[in-house]
Known about the structure:
The complex is a heterodimer. Chain A is mostly helical. Chain A is built from 18 helices and no strands. Chain A has one domain. Chain B has helices spanning 19-31, 46-51, 59-85, 98-124, 161-170, and strands at 9-16, 37-40, 148-153, 175-180. Chain B folds into two domains: 9-56 and 134-180, Alpha-Beta Plaits (2-Layer Sandwich); 59-124, no CATH class. Chain B is elongated, with a radius of gyration of 25 Å.
Amino acid sequence: MMQLGYIPPAELKSISMRALIVGVIFTVLLLIGAVVDRTQFFHAYLVGFIFWIGITLGSLALLMLQHLTGGVWGLIIRRVLEAATRTLPLMVILFVPIIIGLKQIFPKWTSSAFMNQTAALQQKAHFLSPGFFLTRAAIYFAFWSLVALLLNWLSLEQDRTDKKAFRKRMQMISGPGLAFLIVSITFASIDWVMSLEPGWTSTIFGLIFVASWSLSALSLTILTMSWLSRREPMNAVVQRSHFHDWGNLLLTLVMLWTYFAFSQYLLIWSGNLPEETSWYVARKHGGWGVIALGIVILQFAFPFLTLLSRAAKKSSDRLARLALLILIMRVLDVIWLIEPAYNPERFHLSWMDVVAPIGIGGLWIATFAWQLQKRSLMPINDPQIEQALQPAHEH
Amino acid sequence: MKGKPHPHLYGVMAQFDNPSALVAAARETYEAGYRQINGYSPFPIEELSEAIGFRRTALPLIVLIGGIIGGLGGFFMQYWMEVIDYPINVGGKPFNSWPAFIPITFECTVLVAAFSAVLGMLALNKLPQPYHPVFNAPNFALATRDSFFLVIESKDPKFDHDEAVRFLRRLEPREVIDVEL
């Protein structure tokens, strides 16, 4: 059972239960949607899946990042990130509906008539075949699970045995792990999102996902820390200066996402090739244009300007509110990336696009809260722990 | 007793062995009503500036204004060149092709903001300063190694030499020294 140390608040159990109830209710709603409109169900399901796997993988990225950089900011959120990576088995199960609905989700490359249209598409047909697609997905999940498993296991062993060597081992995994994670996320984003429009390509697409998924993950981590910092035992650990650090990282990720997303836009706009610009044409008109503008303002401009202020970063409440806003905008962003691929001519938003992220989210949060409760909230034998518990000036 | 004038005294200095003692002493000194105080340490101590009552500087504002000037300047420099001074049709795009202006706008923002930060910092803390009285104190060279100093300056309205020395001694420093001008 639990080692002595930072016992998670008991309320996590009721949060896990409530999230499970919400998740089940919305999943049932979503299944009703599947009966009403099977195609739309699968489109919305992809939105929900991409948003939540993004938080799982973004957490894995941040976990490896903090192993590599060290520092108290990462030590305090390590257990939250680890719990988030332990939602990976759930995400593997939730990938099954995508296999079932492969033809509805990827209507274009699963149709040989479509892929025979041009020579370029014929070349891509070898890559975008169901067999190879699923093999790649299996490889991604195997790699992500391996890294998550190793880091979670070593971290737990470190709690048990008090050996200094674990820190080094986790760093050794995190270096190559992070590099391969970026490559695997690039491939996964091409498979799961970019391939919705097989004629369209963008080489920076994967990096947009690396940045935006890390942004989602950090936002959820900040919300969790804001909640934990008001309760035993973390209220004795978390200081305003830690929120300052997380706020700075949030600002960095907001700017990184903006940089990648704008680079893609600028290059396609400059190149001015019909097969590339069509992607933005579909996403800049009518209702999608309004959402695009909303994303620019509320996922970049407003967070960017707010996070320039030191007071905003040091206040757990203000930072948590901003993180919540970013998470909501991230859902819209994923809808904006995916849905216009199915309806490029018109603005079409279904109720299922909202229900799916909430349904999957309920199940995700339930798993996350349940896992968070299982371990001490601080890695008690990490060499940095004393530094973390001292007042800031003695570092 | 009102403080006598001290024409040759910069202040009195207390020497401490560790940062915690310095921060605690600085807090007490501030609470005792002294306002013209300063701390010296081999490395930055975040709480120290708070402890000596140093809360806000104009630097963030200077950097913000610098950044805005840089951004607007960068954008309108390109606008002027591309639209007013030397308009060229590039691939049928409008003269005011703002997406293409963004990278330079961003870089000009960073450039001017960074210059504002460095120059504004130097202006506000009055560096470089060829002469400063604290260096007259014999042990002060240790401030770059392992000693931590607190100074009550004689220009403090509450300053009285004997009172200040007695006050600092109560904080149990290693030593209390007069600092000549």
